[in-house]
Amino acid sequence: MKSYFRSEVDAMEGYVPGEQPKIENLCKLNTNENAFPPSPRLQRVLAQFDWERLRRYPDPQADALRDRIAREFGVERANVIAGNGSDDILTMVFRCFTSPELPVACLYPTYSLYPVLAEMQGANVIEIPLTGENFALPDDLPEQGKGANLLIITRPNAPTGNSFPLEAMREICRKFDGVVLFDEAYADFADDNCMGLVKEFDNVIVSRTFSKSYSLAGLRLGFAVGNKTLIEGMFKVKDSYNLDRMTQELGLAAFDDQQYRKECGDKIRATRKQFTSDLESLGFQVVPSQTNFVFAAPPDKDGERCFRELRDRAILVRYFKGPATGTFVRITIGTPEEMARVTTALREIYE
Ligand SMILES: *Cc1c(COP(=O)(O)O)cnc(C)c1O
């Protein structure tokens, strides 16, 4: 059959999400979901939700939610936009700032959705390779990114889990002639973040998600904070009613419960520390993590084998084939009990 598709769509492969399989007793550590349930406040919001109001369209601007987020970060409502997951935020950013004439620069390895979004825009991708065994930023990053209109720094990075020095981020914002997007999907598990740079620079956008630190991957909610002019432009390209009524109300309740979010984050960081030292005692090389996952190379440097052996034991982790990533597996930090099960399995495999 003749193809009716745009050539960009014909040429692209599409994003491949981590599996969501239905295996019994599965230890699911492959897509960085939170080990804990969402804030208990959400149960009450759901129970009291007036179902008749679903007849009406939701607030297209999500003002109540944006006000609450703005208050948290000391900015104004006009500095904030919300999306149907931070993937929706990324879509808006690509629609606004990339085209066949306007390339995007991002790190390598990093979140594999960016090149897919670039292909849809017909935009070229400049990949900036991270260096050394701990995936550090190259010193000449601004030079390598030259010519791009959008630079995405995933901080902390995925799938590598490490972060980059904050002072280097400030230097990049100063030097890069284009929009700098900090994808901070994991910032709530890190020691610091780039939210402060939004007030220092006109060309900075910071994106966050409710999927990881708020335990709400199933809800689909994310947001971005940035200069008013940039945010205003993003509103022009977003889907008209991108956030449904329930998501706006549940998201507000979850965001309001910062203390619960912090408590869960602290527990995950403590488990991460323990699990990292367990992995190291088994001879794994572990990239220092600032996220709710670790990127680790098994003693034989065969990431695929590690993935397979764990899968045979109903433990699902993520493996990314390729020269820079194939010697590693990415393991989400679950509960202490889940991580103990992983450690036991790895001991069986490698000792
Ligand atoms: C999980 C993740 C996202 C997407 O989050 P959603 O809000 O679930 O769409 C964005 N960026 C990175 C780096 C992620 O790991």
The string of secondary-structure elements, in order, is: HEHHEHEHEHEHEHEEHHHEEHEEH
Mean pLDDT: 96
- If you compute it from the alpha carbons, what radius of gyration comes out, rounded to the nearest whole angstrom? 20 Å
End-to-end distance: 55 Å
Percent of residues in beta strands? 5-15%
**Percentage of helical residues?**
25-40%
Query: Total number of β-strand segments?
Result: 12
The helix count comes to 13
Please state how the strands of the largest beta sheet are arranged side by side: 2-8-7-6-5-3-4
Shape designation: globular
Which structural class should the secondary elements be placed in? alpha/beta
The distinct bound ligands, ions and cofactors come out as: pyridoxal-5'-phosphate
Q: Give the low-confidence spans.
A: none
Question: How can the largest sheet be summarized?
Answer: 7 strands, mixed
Task: Summarize this entry quickly.
With 351 residues, the protein is an alpha/beta fold. It contains 13 helices and 12 strands.
What do these coordinates show?
The structure is a single chain. The longest helix is centred in the C-terminal third of the chain and has 24 residues, at 258-281. This protein is of the alpha/beta class and 351 residues long. The protein has helices spanning 7-11, 41-48, 63-73, 86-97, 113-121, 141-144, 166-175, 197-200, 228-237, 245-256, 258-281, 303-312, 336-350, and strands spanning 27-28, 80-83, 104-108, 125-129, 150-154, 179-183, 204-209, 222-226, 285-286, 293-297, 315-316, 329-332. The chain is built from 13 helices and twelve strands. It is 38% helix and 14% strand. The radius of gyration is 20 Å and the shape is globular. The protein has a seven-stranded mixed beta sheet, with helices on both faces. Strands 9-10-12 form a three-stranded antiparallel beta sheet. Strands 1-11 form a two-stranded parallel ribbon. The structure holds pyridoxal-5'-phosphate (PLP). Pyridoxal-5'-phosphate is lined by residues 85-87, 111, 154, 158, 183, 185, 209, 211, 217, 222.
